[in-house]
Amino acid sequence: MPDIRNIVILTGAGISAESGLATFRGPDGLWEGHRVEDVATPEAFVRDPVLVHRFYDARRANLATVEPNAAHRALARLDAEWPGELLIVTQNVDDLHERAGARRLLHMHGELKSAWCRACDARMAWDGGMGEGPACPECGAAGRLRPDIVWFGEMPYGMERIDRALMEADLFVSIGTSGNVYPAAGFVQTARYVHARTLEMNLEPSLGSYLFDESRIGPAGKLVPEWVDDILAG
Ligand code: OAD
Prior knowledge:
three-stranded antiparallel beta sheet, SIR2/SIRT2 'Small Domain', 2 domains
């Protein structure tokens, strides 16, 4: 594709839907049965850590039952083969991009498979439950681990790196996100500001759909491999 060297890709829950992970705001949305404020805020964790741990422990355990789909695999192939700059920014806390092989990846909302110790500030890979209050492997403090997830009201990770990549972008692609949550929902505006091309791929038009040069409507598992084939063919 002419004139495109630097690509920033934003992914959301929709890219993992065909792997069997529920999206947040659909009819089977993850928040159903749980109000967001009950499980995804720092205040909720102070109020009821058992409930919050149970919610995230279940989601972490569930990762073992799902696999990356064709869209994750296509982005991993693009990552491996694209000669220019590329950054895949995901809002997802699952590990499906990395299991598909993506390397140039940033988890802006944190990761289920990471624990953060509030006593010593260490972050570490985590695979089991956290709800039984295990001691921190780094400092030994008991009951001070929390999921390394960015909750509502907290600052997303990697914003400086993301902003730098967006400012240099020639193409911004948004996949499987509803456009409800900032700052991710505003990336398209930064991309437009620097005159990058903008493309959205989603099952339905997102809230910010009108901001994109092009909207492709359909399942990520079909649209993303087609797009990757095209862009790698040049
Ligand atoms: P949402 O659940 O808000 O939106 C998912 C989008 O994916 C919707 O627009 C669906 O139409 C679309 N979709 C569903 N299946 C799809 C498929 N097979 N192919 C393509 N698109 C599909 O999820 P996010 O936008 O990711 O934050 O939500 C953003 C943030 O809100 C999450 O990261 C989470 C949540 O609060 C935190 O946990 C901090």
